[in-house]
Automatic annotation (TrEMBL):
Gene Ontology annotations for the cellular component aspect, listed alphabetically: cytoplasm; nucleus
Higher taxonomy: Eukaryota, Metazoa, Chordata, Craniata, Vertebrata
Species per Swiss-Prot/TrEMBL record: Sparus aurata
Name of the protein described by the UniProt record: Enolase-phosphatase E1
Binding site for substrate: S153, S154, K187
Keywords: Amino-acid biosynthesis, Cytoplasm, Hydrolase, Magnesium, Metal-binding, Methionine biosynthesis, Nucleus
Function of the molecule: Bifunctional enzyme that catalyzes the enolization of 2,3-diketo-5-methylthiopentyl-1-phosphate (DK-MTP-1-P) into the intermediate 2-hydroxy-3-keto-5-methylthiopentenyl-1-phosphate (HK-MTPenyl-1-P), which is then dephosphorylated to form the acireductone 1,2-dihydroxy-3-keto-5-methylthiopentene (DHK-MTPene).
EC number: 3.1.3.77
Any one biological process term the GO annotation gives: L-methionine salvage from methylthioadenosine
Localization annotation: Cytoplasm; Nucleus
Length: 261
C-alpha cells in the first residue's frame, strides 16, 4: 500500500466526515431516511419548544434567501388533512426540508434541525455512528505524534458530536481538538479554511485537510492548506485530471508524517 507524505510543518489534521471518516451509505441510508420518517412527528411534538422555534426561524430565513435567488421550493396543492394554522405551518416546513434534502443542500438551517432530530436516535441506541476501521487507530497515532485533529463537516457540530459520541467504536470524542460546521462558512469557499486556521491558531499551511469532495479540496488549497483526497467505496468518481492533481489515499493508515516517529 503506497504511503502519502504530509508536510513536516503540519500541526493539524482537518477531517471531513461523509465519504472520509464515514461511509456515504451511513448518511444516505440511515441518517437521512430517519429524518424523512420522523420529520412531521418531530415538528408536531416540539413545535412550541424554543429550540424547535429557532430551527424553524432559521429555515424561514433560508426560504427568504432562496426566494431572493429564485431558488424556491415547489408549493404543493392544499392537502385535505391539513386544518389548523399550525398544521399548515408544519406542512410548509416539512415540504421545504424534504425539498432541501432531495437536493442534498448543505444549508446551516437544514443541518441544525437534522442534528437536533438525531439526538434521540443516537441516545436511545437506535443509531450508532459508523466510522471506517482505519480511522480511530490512525487518529490515535497522529495524536501520539503531537498533531491536533479537528472535524469540518457540513453536518452541524451537534450532529458531529453525536456521530462520534455514539459511534460503533464507542465514545471517541476525546480524540478531537475541535469541530467546525457551516457556521464558519461553506466547505467550498476558501475563506472558510482561512477562518478555521485563525480559530485553530496556526497558518493554513500547517493544516492538512482530508476530504472526498474535490470542490472542497480546491477551496482548501486556495486558502493555502495541504489537501489529501480520500477515496472510499461509493464516493464520487474522480476525473483523470483530479486523480493526477491530488494526493489520494484509500485508508488513513497510508498517511505518513515526514520527520515524525
Ligand atoms: C455530521 S453527520 C451528518 C452528515 C451530513 O449531514 C452531511 O452533510 C455530511 O457532510 P460532509 O461535509 O461531512 O461531507
Ligand atoms: Mg464529504
Amino acid at each position: 500500500m503506497a504511503t502519502v507524505s504530509i508536510p513536516a510543518c503540519t500541526s493539524a489534521l482537518l477531517l471531513d466526515i461523509e465519504g472520509t471518516t464515514t461511509p456515504i451509505t451511513f448518511v444516505k441510508d440511515i441518517l437521512f431516511p430517519y429524518i424523512r420518517e420522523h420529520l412531521e412527528d418531530y415538528l408536531s411534538t416540539h413545535w412550541e419548544e424554543d429550540e424547535c422555534k429557532q430551527d424553524v426561524h432559521l429555515l424561514k430565513k433560508q426560504i427568504e434567501e432562496d426566494m431572493k435567488q429564485n431558488r424556491s421550493c415547489p408549493v404543493h396543492a392544499v392537502d385535505q388533512t391539513v386544518h389548523t394554522d399550525e398544521e399548515k405551518a408544519i406542512r410548509e416546513v416539512v415540504d421545504n426540508v424534504l425539498w432541501q434534502m432531495a437536493a442534498d443542500r448543505k444549508s446551516t438551517a437544514l443541518k441544525q434541525l437534522q442534528g437536533h432530530m438525531w439526538r434521540s436516535a443516537y441516545s436511545s441506541g437506535r443509531i450508532k455512528g459508523e466510522v471506517y476501521q482505519d480511522v480511530i487507530p490512525s487518529i490515535k497515532r497522529w495524536k501520539g505524534q503531537g498533531l491536533k485533529v479537528f472535524i469540518y463537516s457540513s453536518g452541524s457540530v451537534e450532529a458531529q458530536k453525536l456521530l462520534f459520541g455514539y459511534s460503533v467504536e464507542g465514545d471517541v470524542l476525546d480524540l478531537f481538538d475541535g469541530h467546525f460546521d457551516t457556521t464558519i462558512g461553506a466547505k467550498v469557499e476558501g475563506k472558510s479554511y482561512e477562518r478555521i486556521a485563525e480559530r485553530i491558531g496556526c497558518p493554513p499551511e500547517e493544516i492538512t485537510f482530508l476530504t472526498d469532495v474535490t470542490r472542497e479540496a480546491k477551496a482548501a488549497e486556495e486558502a493555502g492548506a495541504n489537501v489529501v483526497v480520500v477515496v472510499r467505496p461509493g464516493n464520487m468518481e474522480l476525473t483523470d485530471d483530479e486523480r493526477s492533481h491530488y494526493n489520494l489515499i484509500t485508508s488513513f493508515s497510508q498517511l505518513e508524517l515526514t520527520g515524525r516517529v
